[in-house]
Amino acid sequence: LLNRVKEGGEWYDFAQRWKQCDTGALSCTAIYAEESVKYACENAYRCVPADGELCPTQEVESGADLSTTYYDQAAPVLSLRVAAGGVRLAALLEYLYGA
């Protein structure tokens, strides 16, 4: 993930936006949390049919077995969220302790 967010990496432009927040630390964390909830609801908590089966509901139920299809759909989003968290943590540490 580190190579993807470095200058020249495929997520470099994303990384520049991820670390921008001029509203104060507490406001920024609220924005980050809202983003995460949005991504979770749109991706992680959605049922993904396996092998052409229909989903009984649109929500993933507790204790359900997750298919490879579900994992394949969620993994790229998870990678982006982990990268965003790392970039934002680095920006916060730079702010607190200097570059």
Explain briefly what this protein structure is.
With 99 residues, the protein is mainly alpha-helical. It has 4 helices and no strands.
Q: How would you describe this structure to a colleague?
A:
- This protein is mostly helical and 99 residues long.
- 62% of the residues lie in helices and 0% in strands.
- It has helices spanning 2-5, 12-18, 25-44, 68-97.
- The radius of gyration is 17 Å and the shape is elongated.
- The two termini are 21 Å apart.
- The model has no long low-confidence stretch (mean pLDDT 80).
Described by strand count, sense and barrel closure, the largest sheet is: none
Mean pLDDT: 80
Run of helices and strands: HHHH
- Please compute the radius of gyration using only Cα atoms: 17 Å
Q: What's the N-to-C terminus distance? A: 21 Å
Q: List low-pLDDT spans.
A: none
Count the helices. How many?
4
Which properties best describe this structure?
mainly alpha, 4 helices, elongated, 99 residues
Task: Summarize the helices and strands and which ones pair or pack.
Layout: H1 2-5, H2 12-18, H3 25-44, H4 68-97
Helix pairs in contact: 3-4
